[in-house]
Amino acid sequence: MEAAPRDRAVERLLRGLYSAALYLLLPVTVYHLVWRGFRQAEYLERWGERYAAYRTPPLDDGCVWVHAVSVGEVNAAAPLVNALLEQRPDLRLLVTTITPTGSARVRALWGERVDHVYLPYDLSGAVRRFLGHFRPRLALVLETELWPNLLFCSRDHGIPAYLVNARLSERSLRGYRVLRPLIARALRTLARVAAQSEADGARFVRLGAKPEAVSVLGNLKFDITVDDAARRISAAFTEHSGGRLAWIAASTHPEEEAAVIAIHRRLRARWPDLVLLWAPRHPERFRPVAQACVEAGWRVATRKLTRWPDGGDDVFVIDTLGELVHFYPCARVAFVGGSLQAVGGHNLLEPAALGVAVVTGPHLHNFVDIARRMDEAGALRIGADTDAVGDAVGELLADDAARAAMVAEGLRLVQEGRGALARTLAMITPELPPA
After folding, report:
1. I need a labelling partner for 383 at 20 to 30 A (CA). Which of 43, 73, 160, 345 fits?
2. Looking at residue 57, what DSSP letter applies?
3. How far apart (Å, rounded) are the C-alpha atoms in residues 236 and 242?
4. What was the pLDDT predicted at 1?
5. What's the catalysed reaction (predicted)?
6. Rg of the chain taking only CA atoms, in angstroms
């Protein structure tokens, strides 16, 4: 058998085995939605989209499709989507997510200016129905969403697919070992892999991407824009809280909550009037976090109930979606969560771009390059554990000069890192439908 037919036969075999396994696991997807629904009610809604069953008629004119799995990826895609909306208002844009929090972020950012549905499960039939319904002319997939049927079916439908702002940690690379023969073939269907860094690009090549199809364009997260909402919220917060000293715990996960409470208790021993702004990563943790603070003996305000803290509140829980970035300027120091437990960290550039000193825990495998660059520039403090994070926050609250120097380095680094947006637009523009 010749090489090309043999390779196609191997691809069909691997795709068949993968798809058969997914169909056998189909009941598990229902269980997963129900189980997640007990924690977050939105998972019990819009099930049809999860299996590519739609009530709206199919699109006649097609669309440009952007896939961003959840909140972090939606935020990363925001500069690109905003640029497309501004430069090509004639385009119909479809933004898909997987999580309800990502869905809520899409609507908060763009409302009805973009179409939005959940991406279906990677079942071959569902993916084909999705592509047939929306008829994408171009697929822009954010970061590390390597769904084999999604990529193969896009190729089969003649849809050029780009992996944009692509990142791949060593940990994720190891995780693909079992599916590597299939993933490698799926990667080779991509028109281009636009990697965040040289290291990310090299890992994609090791996973199976064609070296000539991999480009290093930088990280879209550097192209963050600071809008007027952040300034308005900061001014209102200062007015309502009486200008009190504040720090923020951002995007925290359940195993980090006890640490945040312990740190705030320590800090208030030195600054009794200190306010904690707290934004849990997931909506199902909003109420438990507020309750834990009440049980710690603190007076608690929340964004939904009181809108603003007053002079007597000790903790302000940001229990709304999509507003975290606007609250960063209210604080002197930001602890970015997902880093005291092995989640891999969250976006460190947002607080830096907004002029806030940044502290994180040691688990940063999702942001290795950014964390390294910020650390080397003196724009980041990395604490090995809860005590070290608390020490770093306290030192920065106490030392105005050190904090100012750190903020200046963070702003410089963000400014120097810009450019991925322009390079990405230049890459995809030839594939856009004609105006």
Report:
1. 73
2. P
3. 10
4. 43
5. lipid IVA (E. coli) + CMP-3-deoxy-beta-D-manno-octulosonate = alpha-Kdo-(2->6)-lipid IVA (E. coli) + CMP + H(+)
6. 23
pLDDT tens column, 282-310 = 989 999 999 999 999 999 999 999 999 99
pTM (predicted TM-score): 0.91
* Segment among 4-8, 152-156, 281-285 with least mean pLDDT: 4-8
At 3 the pLDDT is 53
Q: List, for residues 167-183, the tens digit of each pLDDT value.
A: 999 989 999 988 999 99
Which among 311, 302, 359, 361 has a CA at the least distance from the CA of 332? 359
Task: Give the residue extent of every domain in the chain.
Answer: 49-218+423-431, 228-417
What are the tens digits of pLDDT across the range 330-376? 999 999 999 999 999 999 999 999 999 999 999 999 899 999 999 99
Note the pLDDT tens digit of each residue in 200-245: 999 999 999 999 999 999 999 999 887 788 889 999 999 999 899 9
Q: What's the CATH fold of domain 228-417?
A: Rossmann fold (3.40.50)
Contact predicate 398/266, CB 8 Å = no
Q: Which amino acid is at 138?
A: L
Residue with tokens 């924690």: 39
> Looking at this protein, which amino acid is placed at residue 87?
Q
CA distance linking residue 88 with residue 93, whole number of Å: 10
Task: Name the DSSP class of 434.
Answer: P
If we measure between CA atoms, which residue out of 52, 18, 47 comes closest to residue 30? 47
Residue 57's pLDDT band (boundaries 50, 70, 90)?
Answer: very high
Percentages helix, strand, coil for the chain (3-state, rounded to 5) are: 55, 15, 30
How far is residue 213's CA from residue 236's CA, in Å, rounded to a whole number?
48
Q: Which fold has domain 49-218+423-431?
A: Rossmann fold (3.40.50)
Residue 267, pLDDT > 90, answer yes
Active site residue 73: yes
